[in-house]
Amino acid sequence: IPLTWWYEFYYDAIQPGQYVFKIQELHKRYGPIIRVTPDGIHINDVGFLDTVYAPAMVRRDKYDYQLRSLRIPGGVGTTAGYHLHRLRRESLTHFFSKKNILYLEGLITDKVEQLKQLIATHVADNTPVNLSDAFFAFSNDVVTNFLFAHQTDILSNESKAVILRQNSKELLMGINLNKHFPWIPDFLESLLLSISRPMMPPGLVDMLALFDRVRNELLALTHTRPSATATTAAKPLGPTGKESVFDSVLDAPNLPDAEKTLPRLEQEGTLLALAGTESPAQTLTVAFYHLLANPALLAKLRQELRTLEQLPYLSAVIEESNRLSFGFTARTARIAYEPLTYTPSAHAAPSPCSPPGAQRKSYVFPPGTPIRTTTLSAQTAETVFPEPWVFDPDRWLGDVGRERRRFQMAFGKGGRRCLGIELARAELFLVIAGLVRAFDMTLFETGEEDVAFRCDYQVAMPGRGSRGVRVRARARVGVGSS
Ligand code: HEM
User: Fold this and answer.
1) pLDDT for 151-198, tens place per residue?
2) How many angstroms is it from 482 CA to the middle of ligand 1?
3) Under a CB-based contact definition with an 8 Å cutoff, are residues 252 and 99 in contact?
4) Closest-lying ligand 1 atom to the alpha carbon of residue 415
5) Which run of H or of E encompasses 238?
6) Which of these, 56, 231, 372, 417, is most buried using a 10 Å CB contact count?
7) What Rg do the C-alpha atoms of the chain give, in angstroms?
8) Neighbouring residues of 185: CB distance < 8 A, sequence distance ≥ 6
9) What crossing angle do the helices spanning 158-180 and 131-147 adopt, rounded to 10°?
């Protein structure tokens, strides 16, 4: 077995979640290109991002080997092949459009109000609020209620939110191992559920429960579809004329029937719900930690929120929170079908092998080579983000800030860019503006370690001991809590 396999295995299993950091260290020693798996390479040069993560019309596949961590091959985000991915994505595009998000904005504002009520209860009881748990419940409720006809309401049950967030964290901590030992989950899945369930981590049991809810909804939908006009008349329909995301998929004209089967749709629904839960919650947590740890930044934001006009500073706070949340941290590779020529750009960090001023040698990667750049590498590139670990929203303002957005990888890039961007943006704007206007908060037994990127488990996680970002809140004078 090649050395790089052992490297990856060691940093996934023995020093879990550490490979992205090791890769950065290796780049300092060996320059902008290194081999990180037996057949794949990592490039530490944001000048090459648009070639690897190319626009939708250029054929790029995802790397099957990496996708096996998640074990949901029927989801749009976990589809390896370019052509199938385009069909699946096209069937969802209208549902995720800005127009549909605006139409369904009431779903988000209702949840923001509920979030404020939850904090107001802690204000009244004089107890700290765990924002990490509350944001997890918020984004879980929003995405599920947006996607499906059935409703979830975790925000109304804080102790359930604590358990679900913990379970989800533990599940993510284990999934890198699926890549190395796929036979373990294969074996568990081959057993009767009554036998395998007690052996499963609680996060996997939650995921199976989500599968069940999605399946029941699909079954109900298929039963009611022939007489859909009668049953849908009283329900609010989006501009797509649909009730749930499955209507969009089932009606997609270009999607073959094999793509509309129950098992495939179950996987799509589950993947969408998972994709829409962790990341917005993570960005909100990072945003609130840094705003509360830097009162001058909070004051600047508050000043801007007094006007109801354009909100460039809030937008900058969101960009910076997304940057330091690191989006999807896994080493998500792309495979090109043409040879790719790489010449180190001015962004490629100098190394003993390629000191500044040295002749820039070009390299040609043969078609089929998995190539990647982690979000850690891209979003801490010092040529683009000086002092990359400092939370500095100002870097996103003005013409220079606009230019920088080309390098923002938090939502991915190219044809596989995040499908939920508009939904995520709406959530982030409404929650940050809503809570900053309504409450004064101070951090409670929380430090930078609670939002620091210490482990890569597909998303950035702090060290094991972290209990999340906790705050004490007070209603702002002259502002009601709702
Ligand atoms: C701040 C919030 C969010 C961040 C930072 C984020 C980040 C990302 C990133 C980095 C990717 C690309 C992954 C890759 O390259 O393999 C992605 C893909 C995706 N995201 Fe998001 N996401 C967010 C919110 C959401 C929400 C609310 C949804 C709603 C369901 C969503 C659904 C998806 C889907 C379906 C994909 C796969 C797209 C495809 O492969 O065509 N995301 N997201």
Assistant:
1) 889 999 999 999 999 988 888 888 777 777 777 777 777 777 778 777
2) 30
3) no
4) 41
5) none
6) 372
7) 23
8) 71, 178
9) 80
